[in-house]
Write a structure and sequence with these properties.
This protein has five helices and three strands. By secondary structure, it is α+β, with helices and mostly antiparallel strands. It has one domain: Alpha-Beta Complex (Sufe protein. Chain: A), CATH 3.90.1010.10. Helix 2 packs across helix 4, helix 2 packs across helix 5 and helix 4 crosses helix 5. The structure holds FE2/S2 (inorganic) cluster (FES). FE2/S2 (inorganic) cluster (FES) binds next to helix 2 and helix 5. The site of FE2/S2 (inorganic) cluster has 9 residues, from helix 2 and helix 5.
Length: 144
């Protein structure tokens, strides 16, 4: 069996939603301490719906494929629906990733969550901190 599924190869060679959104409503940037890769996600949110999403990454092929798929999965969804999308769902939608590449899909999930948290913070919208458990151990948002 090939190491990477056709879907991974498709999203890696032809990634969807690459770029930036000017005046985005939410921006999330996360990094993976182990591999040093960085992922940035921009969201446009209207009336609780994610109307547009773009991403940029200094990441490996699996990170590119995961973010491409994740952006496709959250586009047009409500914030609550987007928060429910886990890296596992992204990996399933990609028809799998090799075990040592699963952490790359975590980067995509974390960037989406960080962008949503940024939207909440910017607009003073109260939220359940439990939704963002990783943020406690990451000082990133405190920087801006
Ligand atoms: Fe770092 Fe894939 S190796 S995100």
């Amino acid at each position: 069996m090939a190491l990477y599924s056709e879907k991974v190869m498709d999203h890696f060679t032809n990634p969807r939603n690459v770029g930036e959104i000017e005046n985005a409503d939410g921006v999330g940037e996360v990094g993976n301490a182990k591999c040093g890769d960085i992922m940035k996600i921009y969201l446009k949110i209207d009336d609780n719906i994610i109307t547009d999403v773009k991403f940029n990454t200094f990441g490996c092929g699996s990170a590119i494929a995961s973010s491409s798929m994740a952006t496709e999965m959250i586009k047009g969804k409500s914030i609550d629906e987007a928060l429910e999308i886990t890296n596992k769902a992204v990996v399933e939608a990609l028809d799998g990733l090799p075990p040592h590449k699963i952490h790359c899909s975590v980067l995509a999930e974390e960037a989406v969550k960080a962008a949503l948290k940024n939207y909440y913070d910017k607009n003073n919208i109260p939220y359940d901190k439990e939704l963002f458990p990783d943020c406690d151990s990451c000082a990133h948002c405190a920087d801006h």
